[in-house]
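Q: How would the structure tokens look for this protein?
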Amino acid sequence: QVQLVESGGGLVQAGGSLRLSCAASGRIFSIKSMGWYRQPPGKQLELVAAIFRGGSTNYADSAKGRFTITGDNAKNTMYLQMNSLKPEDTDVYYCNLALTNVGDYWGQGTQVTVSS
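A: Here is the predicted structure in token form.
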């Protein structure tokens, strides 16, 4: 089994920063990617940022220039540094882990609330 533990969400004023963490443990053999997703009300799950084996990254347009995703391979942990936060960033953020030839795992979600 694989477990994902998220932390770092909270309440912050517009313009502030938060750092989300997602630690993976269990039977992890080959990580294809890790990423953060959100699901705005009435909308489908959408990618915020992802980091792939090898270190390449992908960001939603709304995250570019403000968010930075990094990974610590030794700890199987991923981080999302969120700067210049806006009220529209408010949502539950879900950690995703994609394992090669296995499938996807999801965290329980962490709430990010940005007040205006």
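The mean pLDDT is 95.

The chain is about 0% helix and 60% strand.

Upvote if useful.
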